[in-house]
Amino acid sequence: MAAQEEGTVLSLSPSEQEDEEDEEAAAARRAQRFILDPRVRFLGGRLRQALALPEETWSQYLESEDHRQTLGDFLESTGPASLVFSVADAGRLSASLELQAPIVLKMVKILTARQSSYFPTLNVIFTTVENALLEAQDVELHLSPLRRHIHGLQEAEFPQTRILIAPLFHTICLIWSHSKFYNTPARIIVLLQEFCNLFIDQARTYLSPEDLLKGEIEDALEKVQVAIDFSHHTHTYTKRKKRRGEEEEEEEEEEEKKKKKKKKKKKKKKKKKKK
What's a single GO MF annotation on this record (predicted)? Predict the structure, then answer.
């Protein structure tokens, strides 16, 4: 009798089974959308490259709902460059520990001494990990100055963030010109997109619909004008910076032309002396 009661309690009705199947299907769709998210794919590619992770390991990591939740909270954080910082730190720590492990060094010595056929493959792995380590160190070195700018943007009120645009973009330009691994359009675009998203979130918070409707019309219009001026300021600065970059390129080209002319003159003088 008790067994029957337990069976009736544990069994699910057809409607409950359908609800459970619907929940599982919805969870599967959410997981698939999460995996296909551009930010998740970007992070997966960076981790696989920095840590030499196989794609299967990353896929298994994303199968866990807890892992997806943790990663989602991390990606939704307000720190735009935190993603790159964390990937760089993870790559640096993992690669350095793997390369310095005693068992790995012993294995290398044995394979080298016996001229094993496995040594070329191991050498390729070492080279890949070493390159990933150098890239992670370069990214961490050049992007770490952004932490101060991010902190300032998060702490300042929206009207005051306008004066922080110039030093921020100047730092990004320095990253573009000095970093060996972060000087590609794709990576800089991702970084700029993160900062633009931060500006958009701050503008939305500043232009809260409830506050605009509750307050005075003049105050609401003033806030809207502040947001418009901020947008114009960022566009104007980027255009001015682009124009300045073009001018610097023209100056460099002119200097190169002058150097070539000087070399030609020197060659002509040498020929005349020989004659």
Answer: minus-end-directed microtubule motor activity
Any idea where the domains of the chain sit in the sequence? 24-143, 145-246
Q: Tell me which residue of 169, 191, 178, 167 sits closest to 142, measured CA to CA.
A: 178
Instruction: List the alpha helices (DSSP H) in the chain.
Output: 2-10, 14-35, 38-51, 55-63, 65-75, 82-100, 102-113, 119-143, 146-155, 165-178, 185-206, 209-214, 217-274
User: How many alpha carbons lie under 13 Å from residue 239 in its C-beta half-sphere?
Assistant: 6
Using CA atoms, how far apart are residues 161 and 206, in angstroms rounded to an integer?
A: 12
For residue 153, the number of C-alpha atoms closer than 13 Å in the C-beta half-sphere is 26
Query: What is the CA angle 73-37-25, rounded to 5?
Result: 90
pTM value is 0.49
Dist CA 258 CA 253 (whole Å): 9
Determine the distance from the C-alpha atom of residue 223 to the mean position of all C-alpha atoms in its chain, rounded to a whole number.
31
What gap in Å lies between CA 87 and CA 177, rounded to an integer? 21
Residue pLDDT tens, the chain, 275 long: 444 444 444 444 555 555 666 777 777 788 788 777 776 776 666 666 655 667 777 777 777 777 777 777 666 654 444 444 444 444 444 555 555 667 767 777 777 777 777 778 777 777 777 777 777 778 878 888 888 888 888 888 888 888 888 888 888 888 888 888 888 888 888 888 888 888 888 888 888 888 788 878 888 888 888 888 888 777 776 666 666 656 666 667 777 777 777 777 777 776 666 66
| DSSP calls for 185-232 | HHHHHHHHHHHHHHHHHHHHHHT-HHHHHHS-HHHHHHHHHHHHHHHH
